[in-house]
UniProtKB/TrEMBL annotation:
Lineage: Bacteria, Bacillati, Actinomycetota, Actinomycetes, Pseudonocardiales
Lyase found in the keyword field: no
Protein name, UniProt field: NADP-dependent oxidoreductase
Subcellular compartments: Cytoplasm
Major subcellular site: cytoplasm
Coiled-coil positions: none
Length: 297
Protein backbone atom coordinates (compact mmCIF):
# COMPACT_ATOMS: atom_id res chain seq x y z
CA UNK A 1 0.00 0.00 0.00
CA UNK A 2 0.99 3.67 -0.29
CA UNK A 3 1.49 5.85 2.78
CA UNK A 4 3.11 9.13 3.73
CA UNK A 5 6.15 8.73 5.98
CA UNK A 6 9.22 10.62 7.23
CA UNK A 7 12.61 9.24 8.28
CA UNK A 8 13.99 12.40 9.89
CA UNK A 9 12.55 15.42 11.65
CA UNK A 10 12.39 18.61 9.67
CA UNK A 11 10.38 20.66 7.22
CA UNK A 12 7.68 19.40 4.85
CA UNK A 13 10.36 18.25 2.42
CA UNK A 14 11.09 15.24 4.69
CA UNK A 15 7.70 13.73 3.82
CA UNK A 16 7.79 10.84 1.35
CA UNK A 17 5.05 8.79 -0.31
CA UNK A 18 6.35 5.24 0.13
CA UNK A 19 5.34 1.63 -0.34
CA UNK A 20 4.61 0.02 3.04
CA UNK A 21 3.20 -3.14 4.53
CA UNK A 22 -0.49 -3.02 5.31
CA UNK A 23 -1.33 -2.62 9.02
CA UNK A 24 -3.78 -5.00 10.69
CA UNK A 25 -6.38 -4.48 13.38
CA UNK A 26 -5.31 -5.64 16.83
CA UNK A 27 -7.59 -6.24 19.83
CA UNK A 28 -10.05 -3.38 20.25
CA UNK A 29 -9.23 -1.89 16.85
CA UNK A 30 -10.64 -1.75 13.34
CA UNK A 31 -8.85 -1.30 10.05
CA UNK A 32 -10.29 0.90 7.36
CA UNK A 33 -9.71 1.42 3.69
CA UNK A 34 -9.02 5.14 4.05
CA UNK A 35 -11.07 7.50 1.95
CA UNK A 36 -9.83 10.75 3.54
CA UNK A 37 -7.54 11.86 6.38
CA UNK A 38 -7.75 15.04 8.43
CA UNK A 39 -4.82 17.47 8.37
CA UNK A 40 -4.08 18.74 11.89
CA UNK A 41 -1.47 21.09 13.32
CA UNK A 42 -0.24 18.26 15.53
CA UNK A 43 0.76 16.38 12.35
CA UNK A 44 3.39 18.91 11.34
CA UNK A 45 4.40 19.61 14.94
CA UNK A 46 5.26 15.90 15.31
CA UNK A 47 7.06 15.94 11.95
CA UNK A 48 9.17 18.89 13.16
CA UNK A 49 10.06 17.01 16.36
CA UNK A 50 8.36 19.49 18.69
CA UNK A 51 7.07 16.77 21.01
CA UNK A 52 10.12 14.51 21.14
CA UNK A 53 10.94 15.56 24.71
CA UNK A 54 7.49 14.69 26.03
CA UNK A 55 6.14 12.12 23.56
CA UNK A 56 9.04 10.57 21.64
CA UNK A 57 8.38 8.55 18.49
CA UNK A 58 10.60 6.16 16.55
CA UNK A 59 11.59 6.89 12.98
CA UNK A 60 10.64 6.25 10.27
CA UNK A 61 7.08 7.22 11.21
CA UNK A 62 3.78 7.63 9.46
CA UNK A 63 1.69 10.79 9.51
CA UNK A 64 -1.86 11.59 10.58
CA UNK A 65 -4.34 10.57 13.23
CA UNK A 66 -7.81 11.33 11.82
CA UNK A 67 -9.52 9.44 9.03
CA UNK A 68 -12.76 8.28 7.49
CA UNK A 69 -13.26 5.17 5.44
CA UNK A 70 -14.77 1.71 5.05
CA UNK A 71 -14.15 -0.96 7.69
CA UNK A 72 -12.41 -3.97 6.15
CA UNK A 73 -10.99 -5.71 9.23
CA UNK A 74 -12.36 -6.00 12.78
CA UNK A 75 -10.06 -6.78 15.70
CA UNK A 76 -10.61 -9.19 18.57
CA UNK A 77 -13.13 -8.05 21.15
CA UNK A 78 -14.74 -5.43 18.92
CA UNK A 79 -18.53 -5.40 18.64
CA UNK A 80 -21.10 -3.10 17.10
CA UNK A 81 -19.22 -2.61 13.84
CA UNK A 82 -18.94 -4.80 10.75
CA UNK A 83 -16.87 -5.01 7.58
CA UNK A 84 -18.35 -2.56 5.11
CA UNK A 85 -19.45 0.03 7.69
CA UNK A 86 -18.61 3.66 6.97
CA UNK A 87 -16.80 5.14 10.00
CA UNK A 88 -14.67 8.08 11.06
CA UNK A 89 -12.28 8.23 13.96
CA UNK A 90 -8.74 8.42 15.30
CA UNK A 91 -5.78 6.12 14.88
CA UNK A 92 -2.23 6.27 13.55
CA UNK A 93 -0.53 6.82 10.19
CA UNK A 94 -3.79 7.80 8.54
CA UNK A 95 -2.22 9.46 5.47
CA UNK A 96 -2.32 6.04 3.84
CA UNK A 97 -4.46 3.66 1.81
CA UNK A 98 -5.18 1.57 4.94
CA UNK A 99 -5.09 2.61 8.59
CA UNK A 100 -5.93 1.17 11.99
CA UNK A 101 -8.33 3.13 14.20
CA UNK A 102 -8.46 2.86 17.98
CA UNK A 103 -11.58 5.03 18.32
CA UNK A 104 -14.38 5.37 15.80
CA UNK A 105 -18.06 6.00 15.22
CA UNK A 106 -20.41 5.40 12.33
CA UNK A 107 -20.44 8.36 9.99
CA UNK A 108 -23.57 10.51 10.09
CA UNK A 109 -25.45 10.08 6.83
CA UNK A 110 -25.21 13.83 6.25
CA UNK A 111 -21.45 13.67 5.72
CA UNK A 112 -19.23 12.67 2.83
CA UNK A 113 -15.97 10.84 3.60
CA UNK A 114 -14.08 14.04 2.87
CA UNK A 115 -16.16 16.03 5.35
CA UNK A 116 -16.12 13.34 8.05
CA UNK A 117 -12.32 13.13 8.10
CA UNK A 118 -12.14 16.67 9.43
CA UNK A 119 -14.06 16.10 12.67
CA UNK A 120 -12.47 13.58 15.09
CA UNK A 121 -9.50 15.38 16.66
CA UNK A 122 -10.92 18.88 16.39
CA UNK A 123 -14.14 17.95 18.18
CA UNK A 124 -12.28 16.04 20.89
CA UNK A 125 -9.96 19.02 21.36
CA UNK A 126 -12.82 21.52 21.40
CA UNK A 127 -14.79 19.54 23.99
CA UNK A 128 -11.69 19.04 26.14
CA UNK A 129 -10.54 22.66 26.26
CA UNK A 130 -14.04 24.02 26.87
CA UNK A 131 -14.22 21.67 29.85
CA UNK A 132 -10.72 22.48 31.08
CA UNK A 133 -11.16 26.24 30.92
CA UNK A 134 -14.32 25.93 33.02
CA UNK A 135 -16.58 28.25 31.03
CA UNK A 136 -20.33 27.87 31.69
CA UNK A 137 -23.67 28.83 30.20
CA UNK A 138 -24.23 32.58 30.46
CA UNK A 139 -20.51 33.38 30.45
CA UNK A 140 -18.30 34.77 27.67
CA UNK A 141 -15.43 32.86 26.07
CA UNK A 142 -12.72 34.56 24.01
CA UNK A 143 -11.23 32.41 21.24
CA UNK A 144 -7.98 33.59 19.65
CA UNK A 145 -7.60 32.12 16.18
CA UNK A 146 -11.23 31.09 15.86
CA UNK A 147 -11.69 30.32 12.16
CA UNK A 148 -9.79 27.02 11.92
CA UNK A 149 -11.11 23.55 12.60
CA UNK A 150 -10.88 23.59 16.39
CA UNK A 151 -12.17 27.16 16.52
CA UNK A 152 -15.11 26.31 14.29
CA UNK A 153 -16.00 23.43 16.62
CA UNK A 154 -15.52 25.51 19.79
CA UNK A 155 -17.80 28.28 18.53
CA UNK A 156 -20.63 25.90 17.67
CA UNK A 157 -20.34 23.71 20.77
CA UNK A 158 -20.22 26.80 22.99
CA UNK A 159 -23.29 28.25 21.29
CA UNK A 160 -25.12 24.95 21.84
CA UNK A 161 -24.27 25.26 25.56
CA UNK A 162 -25.45 28.84 25.95
CA UNK A 163 -21.96 30.36 26.06
CA UNK A 164 -21.28 33.69 24.33
CA UNK A 165 -18.14 33.60 22.18
CA UNK A 166 -15.87 36.41 21.02
CA UNK A 167 -13.67 35.19 18.19
CA UNK A 168 -10.58 36.74 16.61
CA UNK A 169 -9.58 36.02 13.03
CA UNK A 170 -8.37 37.74 9.87
CA UNK A 171 -10.46 40.28 7.99
CA UNK A 172 -11.57 37.70 5.41
CA UNK A 173 -13.06 35.43 8.10
CA UNK A 174 -15.16 37.93 10.04
CA UNK A 175 -18.43 37.01 8.32
CA UNK A 176 -17.58 33.32 8.74
CA UNK A 177 -17.26 33.75 12.53
CA UNK A 178 -20.50 35.73 12.70
CA UNK A 179 -22.22 32.97 10.74
CA UNK A 180 -21.18 30.54 13.50
CA UNK A 181 -22.77 32.79 16.12
CA UNK A 182 -19.67 34.56 17.41
CA UNK A 183 -18.98 38.20 18.14
CA UNK A 184 -16.12 38.73 15.70
CA UNK A 185 -13.11 41.02 15.63
CA UNK A 186 -9.75 41.08 13.90
CA UNK A 187 -6.37 40.35 15.43
CA UNK A 188 -3.43 42.71 15.03
CA UNK A 189 -2.70 46.10 16.56
CA UNK A 190 -5.41 47.28 18.95
CA UNK A 191 -7.14 43.89 19.19
CA UNK A 192 -7.28 43.90 23.00
CA UNK A 193 -9.27 47.14 23.05
CA UNK A 194 -11.55 45.85 20.30
CA UNK A 195 -12.28 42.79 22.43
CA UNK A 196 -12.95 44.94 25.49
CA UNK A 197 -15.52 46.94 23.54
CA UNK A 198 -17.39 43.70 22.86
CA UNK A 199 -17.72 42.95 26.56
CA UNK A 200 -16.03 41.37 29.59
CA UNK A 201 -14.30 38.01 29.13
CA UNK A 202 -14.69 35.12 31.59
CA UNK A 203 -12.29 32.66 29.94
CA UNK A 204 -10.05 32.45 26.87
CA UNK A 205 -8.58 29.89 24.49
CA UNK A 206 -5.41 30.29 22.42
CA UNK A 207 -5.75 28.18 19.29
CA UNK A 208 -3.20 29.88 17.04
CA UNK A 209 -0.04 30.26 19.12
CA UNK A 210 0.42 33.83 17.92
CA UNK A 211 2.09 35.17 21.06
CA UNK A 212 -1.03 36.53 22.80
CA UNK A 213 -0.92 34.62 26.09
CA UNK A 214 -0.02 37.70 28.16
CA UNK A 215 -2.97 39.62 26.70
CA UNK A 216 -5.39 36.74 27.25
CA UNK A 217 -4.39 36.60 30.92
CA UNK A 218 -4.88 40.37 31.11
CA UNK A 219 -8.37 40.13 29.61
CA UNK A 220 -9.53 37.29 31.87
CA UNK A 221 -7.65 38.47 34.96
CA UNK A 222 -6.57 34.93 35.83
CA UNK A 223 -4.08 32.60 34.08
CA UNK A 224 -6.16 29.65 35.27
CA UNK A 225 -8.96 30.86 32.97
CA UNK A 226 -6.77 30.57 29.87
CA UNK A 227 -5.91 27.40 27.94
CA UNK A 228 -3.55 27.09 24.96
CA UNK A 229 -3.25 24.27 22.47
CA UNK A 230 -0.67 26.06 20.31
CA UNK A 231 1.88 27.94 22.43
CA UNK A 232 4.40 25.68 24.17
CA UNK A 233 5.58 28.70 26.17
CA UNK A 234 2.18 29.21 27.79
CA UNK A 235 3.23 27.68 31.16
CA UNK A 236 5.70 30.54 31.60
CA UNK A 237 2.64 32.75 32.20
CA UNK A 238 0.91 30.24 34.47
CA UNK A 239 -1.32 29.12 31.60
CA UNK A 240 -2.03 25.46 30.97
CA UNK A 241 -0.95 23.90 27.68
CA UNK A 242 -3.49 21.23 26.77
CA UNK A 243 -2.07 18.57 24.50
CA UNK A 244 -3.21 15.18 25.83
CA UNK A 245 -6.43 13.84 24.39
CA UNK A 246 -9.32 12.73 26.57
CA UNK A 247 -11.95 10.08 25.86
CA UNK A 248 -12.06 9.84 22.08
CA UNK A 249 -15.04 7.47 21.96
CA UNK A 250 -17.18 9.89 23.99
CA UNK A 251 -16.04 12.82 21.86
CA UNK A 252 -16.98 11.02 18.64
CA UNK A 253 -20.39 10.12 20.06
CA UNK A 254 -20.99 13.76 20.95
CA UNK A 255 -19.83 14.82 17.49
CA UNK A 256 -22.37 12.49 15.90
CA UNK A 257 -25.10 13.91 18.15
CA UNK A 258 -24.23 17.53 17.35
CA UNK A 259 -23.97 16.88 13.61
CA UNK A 260 -27.24 14.93 13.55
CA UNK A 261 -29.03 17.78 15.38
CA UNK A 262 -27.69 20.32 12.91
CA UNK A 263 -25.62 22.03 15.63
CA UNK A 264 -22.16 21.36 14.19
CA UNK A 265 -20.87 21.81 10.66
CA UNK A 266 -17.20 22.27 9.74
CA UNK A 267 -16.50 23.05 6.08
CA UNK A 268 -13.60 21.56 4.14
CA UNK A 269 -11.54 24.47 2.86
CA UNK A 270 -9.17 22.42 0.68
CA UNK A 271 -8.41 18.83 -0.25
CA UNK A 272 -5.06 17.29 -1.20
CA UNK A 273 -3.84 13.97 -2.59
CA UNK A 274 -1.37 11.77 -0.67
CA UNK A 275 1.36 13.04 -2.98
CA UNK A 276 0.48 16.61 -1.92
CA UNK A 277 0.89 15.98 1.82
CA UNK A 278 3.86 18.35 2.06
CA UNK A 279 1.79 21.18 0.59
CA UNK A 280 -1.02 20.37 3.01
CA UNK A 281 1.43 20.83 5.89
CA UNK A 282 2.78 24.07 4.44
CA UNK A 283 -0.74 25.47 4.16
CA UNK A 284 -1.75 24.24 7.62
CA UNK A 285 1.31 25.79 9.22
CA UNK A 286 0.64 29.11 7.49
CA UNK A 287 -2.74 29.33 9.25
CA UNK A 288 -5.61 31.48 7.96
CA UNK A 289 -7.67 28.31 7.55
CA UNK A 290 -11.44 28.50 7.39
CA UNK A 291 -12.65 25.11 8.62
CA UNK A 292 -10.63 22.01 7.71
CA UNK A 293 -8.03 20.66 5.32
CA UNK A 294 -8.06 16.98 4.35
CA UNK A 295 -6.03 14.49 2.35
CA UNK A 296 -8.18 12.43 0.00
CA UNK A 297 -7.03 8.89 -0.75
Amino acid sequence: MKKVSFAEFGGPDVLRLVDAEEPHAGPGQVRIAVRAAGVNAVDWRIREGQFQASRPIELPAGVGQDASGVVDEVGEGVSGVEVGDHVFGEGASTYAEFAVLSAWARMPEELTFEEAAGYPSVVETALRIIREVGVRSGQTLLVSGAAGGVGSAVLQIARDRGITVIGTAGVANQDYLRGLGALATTYGEGWVERVRRLGPVDAALDLAGSGVIRELVELTGDPRKVISIADLGAPEFGVRFSGVAGNRHEALAEAVDLISRGRLSIPVEKSYTLAEAAQAHIDSRAGHTRGRRVVVV
